Amino acid sequence: MTTHSNIKPDPGKQSGDDRYARQICFAPLGADGQQQLAAGRALVCGCGALGSVIANTLVRAGVGMVRIVDRDFLEMNNLQRQVIFNEKDVTSGLPKAIAAAQNLATVNSQVTIEPVVEDVTYANIDTIAADVDVIVDGTDNFETRMLINDFAVKEARPWIYGGCIGAEGQTMTILPGKTACLGCLMPELPPPGTTPTCDTAGILGPVVNVIASFEAMEAIKILSGNLEATNRQLMIFEMWHNRVRQLDTTKLFKTGTCLTCAKHKFRWLDGNLSSGSAVLCGRNSVQIGAPAGGQVSFPQLAQKLASVGEVTHNRYLLRVTIAEHQLTVFADGRTIVAGTDDISTARTLVAKYIGS
Ligand SMILES: [Zn+2]
Questions:
Q1: Ligand 1 center from residue 273 Cα (angstroms)
Q2: What is the fold, at CATH topology level, of the domain defined by 277-353?
Q3: Does residue 43 or residue 319 have the better pLDDT?
Q4: How far is the CA of 188 from the centre of ligand 1 (A)?
Q5: Which residues lie at CB < 5 A from ion ligand 1?
Q6: Could you state, in order of their start, the residue ranges of all structural domains in the chain?
Q7: For 38, what's the count of Cα atoms within 13 Å in the CB-facing half-sphere?
Q8: Which of 5, 112, 124, 343 is the most buried (most CB within 10 A)?
Q9: What is the whole-number distance in angstroms between the Cα of residue 137 and the centre of ligand 1?
Q10: Rounded average pLDDT over 327-351
């Protein structure tokens, strides 16, 4: 009679050679594709819910180098959907990029994992993304996505956009020069405060897994040399309503009016549209500059924030208190975050609660 304690692992089955057997067995990938994956370099930009699944999938798949960049630290409310983190990571107060790299290093020691604890901006994206073959979107705001889009189009680098809110998500693969870019889809940012964020509209874990898995699959196709297999449509998953939609973006691409991919104006990368941020000296406060896009509607924003903190507003500004932080939003979207002197923390709070 065999008991579990008698089952010894077969050393041969533990070797690195066998690790990717099921993947190599898939004919369109094969041994050649696996070799290309092993030489591939991916940037996972943002390591929250989407980034967790993307980084996890790419590291397990054997992508040679996975760089994980994130500006945030972990909170207990992340664990509901950010699947590579655990309670110990939260109590240890680690930045997400570091915790992700530590946890994934125990999964696949063959992969080089590079954590970067930074806010991606026009000033550093050249360095962070210079040597990667693909950029995969795990961010939580459109300002960073527009910046990635500028960089990717300028440098002819494939990137995969993904975003989720509530039970809905969307994703699009951008092959510069061949497909529509994010600027074709969204010529300007929505006005500040008008888009829901996962802190105001909530988010369900499964939709994140679907979108992130879709993004990771596209990255695997690109890195394994199977560009022709990539998806050429905007995919929209409305999971609560059991709907999947595919929108053809070819027409958008062919209009030739996109400032980014048709006219090669890189407004985000040039820093022209970058929201200036600054620590307000001696006040334990940070100012986050106005995003492009117009005026804030205070009644609309107050309604959105009613469930997260105490909100007051007059015709000049709106103020919301969330735990030890107080956010003061001006009509043009400029926000002063009191209770911190750290720009990344302030930017994270603005992205979470005000949106961009
Ligand atoms: Zn475009």
A1: 17
A2: TATA-Binding Protein (3.30.310)
A3: 43
A4: 12
A5: 181, 183-184, 258, 260-261
A6: 10-254, 277-353
A7: 15
A8: 343
A9: 17
A10: 88
Residue 234: is its pLDDT beyond 70? yes
Q: Label the pairing between strands 159-165 and 134-137.
A: parallel
Average pLDDT taken over every residue of the chain: 88
Q: How confident is the model at residue 231 (pLDDT cuts 50, 70, 90)?
A: very high
Distance CA 56, CA 47 (A): 10
Buried b (16+ CB within 10 A) or exposed e, 198-209: bbbeebbeebbb
| Residue 76 pLDDT class (50, 70, 90 cuts) | confident
Residue 182 CA to ligand 1 centre (angstroms): 6
14, pLDDT greater than 80: no
Measured at the CA of 135, the angle between CA 33 and CA 186, to 5 degrees, comes to 125
Q: Which CATH number fits domain 10-254: 3.90.1640.10, 1.25.40.10, 3.40.50.150, 3.40.50.720?
A: 3.40.50.720
Alpha-carbon gap, residue 242 to 206, rounded angstroms:
13
pLDDT at 287: 78
CA–centroid distance, residue 184 to ligand 1 (Å): 4
